[in-house]
Write a structure and sequence with these properties.
The structure holds two protein chains of two kinds. Chain A is α/β, with parallel strands linked by helices. Chain A has nine helices and ten strands. The radius of gyration of chain B is 19 Å and the shape is globular. The chains are: A alpha/beta, B mainly alpha.
Chain lengths: 239, 323
């Protein structure tokens, strides 16, 4: 049984078909890159997977059980954790407390969450700034913090929306190293990114979307050499 | 480990400061023997309770309600009507006031659950005005603007004084333990970013409703105690200007801090007694102060105090203000 199955999901905003019968599935432990030009429906799909949007038709199943239409808090509690493209943190709480919120909300005790948070901060090289308010951190550090809070309790699946966008190369390396280690331990991921070199390096498999449709779904190298994908990115002439 | 945790340090400092303040209030009658001025402090403790309750919503949960005085009025009328119609004493009336205000707070909390910012403020404002007008116009039931006489609890003013002080202390201690628990984390997370909090598994509906219920229940308690002290309740308790006073107390004292509302309430109310001769100009003075504090000193007097003692506290960007 796939860990996550997306089955003929469609979503329109007025006359715009943001998702058009999108389907693909992930096995547990897979690290899948989700790519596609701007406006291809990647974030809309992630919003549906994390409960921030409802779909017009189709179903999403987590471990075989339908999760379509559940609220974000219910999905987080089932292990669907999500990182936003535009960073969302708790600006007037310390970095440490930011992590504690997720840990406690997902069932850890306060001392348990504190222990886990200290470990994560260490892992992400954020220990130095743990007592600063999230709002005082740099954009990259805030991203790293939000990234970290997805892993306070190992999620069933982590949905990362553009984790590497506008992030300093050092922080990018910290994040991709972290993803690699967690993947080796069996963590399941969907990573949305425009940073194709990182996708090639990290993700064995990629799904490419264009105009709300899944246009390619195979090994990352094969996807990137796919004629349809090149056409979607660069136009017909280039292909 | 938990005590080394910075939010707990901040909370502990504020809590300790508020205890010092309450201790000061505790020894005050040794110097202020005038019954009138003791009464002024009693009323300021009533306002302090409303301010603490409002701060739970605005300062810690980011919900800008305009109904604290209305809930105080509801509490006062609950015990007032129970004694007027059934001859029940404060032993029944005060707990009933807590429950009635809490339940109405819960209902209001559910209604405004999805509202934010100005919409939330306007809805709670309408609620407060409706409540006041219903009480004021239900003349057959509440005697309307004539108000209700409420039996007192004690004969001595000092007994009221220390009752109010004990209740305020109990509220403050309870709040301290609440805020240093997981609940405190969730409330502040909701204040900072509701969407982020939800996507990390925080039960938004539950905790927002919780904050509304708790805040309303504390206001109800405060109102009931005030009613028994004043031995009279009237719809004026629920006037919007009363809520304005509560807000100015919290903003001047320090929004989102444990000590600010109490310090602000004592200061503003006692000061307003001195300004009484100027009539309504006292409101102008406080409104002006609120503007100054909201614009330049987001952490209120408490923040200024911290800065003065060399602890920069937190920079203005991180200041605790309701949006």
């Amino acid at each position: 049984m796939p860990c996550l199955a997306i089955d003929h999901v469609s979503k329109s905003f007025g006359g715009l078909k943001a998702l058009d019968n999108a389907s693909f599935s992930l096995e547990a432990g897979e690290l899948v890159g989700l790519i596609g030009p701007n406006g291809s429906g990647k974030t809309t799909l992630l919003n549906i997977l994390s409960g921030h949007l409802s779909c017009d038709s189709g179903t999403v199943r987590l471990d075989g059980k339908p999760i379509t239409g559940l609220h974000p808090e219910a999905l987080a509690r089932r292990g669907v954790l999500r990182m936003f493209q535009l960073t969302r943190s708790f600006p007037r709480m310390s970095a440490f407390d930011n992590l504690l919120v997720t840990g406690c909300a997902l069932g850890l005790t306060l001392p348990g969450a504190e222990k886990r948070a200290l470990g994560l901060l260490e892992d992400l090289s954020l220990t130095r700034i743990m007592n600063l308010n999230a709002g005082q951190l740099s954009g990259g550090q805030q991203k790293l913090l939000e990234f970290g809070s997805c892993f306070m309790v190992p999620p069933r699946i982590a949905l990362l929306d553009e984790p590497f966008a506008a992030v300093h190369p050092t922080l990018k390396e910290i994040m991709s190293g972290f993803i690699r280690r967690r993947h080796a331990e069996g963590q399941t991921f969907i990573v949305v990114s425009h940073d194709l070199p990182v996708i090639v390096e990290l993700c064995p498999r990629s799904v490419c979307m264009n105009a709300g449709r899944v246009i390619a779904d195979e090994s990352t190298r094969a996807v990137l050499t796919d004629k349809v994908v090149i056409e979607a990115y660069l136009g017909e002439a280039a292909a | 480990m938990a005590s080394a945790h910075p939010i707990n340090r901040k909370l502990q400092t504020e809590f300790a400061a508020s205890l010092v303040l309450l201790a000061f209030v505790g020894v005050l009658p040794a110097f202020v023997t005038n019954a009138y001025w003791q009464g002024v402090v009693v009323v300021s403790m009533y306002f302090a309770m409303l301010a603490v309750a409002w701060n739970i919503l605005a300062g810690y949960t980011g919900q800008f309600s305009l109904a604290p005085a209305a809930f105080g009025m509801i509490g006062a009328y609950t015990t007032g009507l129970l004694s007027y119609y059934y001859g029940l004493t404060a032993i029944v009336g005060v707990p009933a006031a807590i429950v009635v205000a809490g339940v109405i707070g819960l209902v209001l909390g559910r209604i405004v659950l999805r509202l934010r910012g100005p919409y939330l403020a306007l809805t709670t404002l309408s609620f407060a005005e409706i409540m006041r007008l219903v009480i004021s116009n239900s003349i057959d039931f509440t005697r309307g603007d004539l108000g209700l006489n409420v039996p007192g609890i004690f004969d001595s003013r000092l007994a009221y004084y220390y009752m109010m002080l004990a209740v305020l202390l109990a509220i403050q201690v309870g709040l301290f333990y609440l805020l240093r628990s997981r609940a405190g984390l969730y409330l502040r997370a909701i204040r900072d970013d509701e969407i982020a909090a939800a996507s990390r598994g925080v039960l938004i509906v539950y905790w927002k409703t919780f904050a509304f219920t708790l805040s309303a229940a504390i206001c109800g308690l405060a109102g009931a105690l005030y009613g028994h002290f004043a031995q009279f309740v009237s719809p004026e308790l629920g006037l919007l200007s009363q809520t304005g006073v509560v807000i100015s107390m919290v903003v001047i004292g320090g929004l989102g801090t444990m000590v600010g509302p109490i310090g602000g309430a004592l200061l503003v109310y006692v000061l307003s007694e001195f300004l009484r001769d100027f009539g309504n100009y006292q409101l102008v003075v406080f409104a002006f102060l609120v503007i100054i504090f909201a614009r330049f000193f987001r952490e209120g007097l408490w923040g200024l105090l911290l800065a003065a003692f060399g602890r920069p506290g937190r920079p203005a960007a991180a200041a605790t203000a309701a949006e």
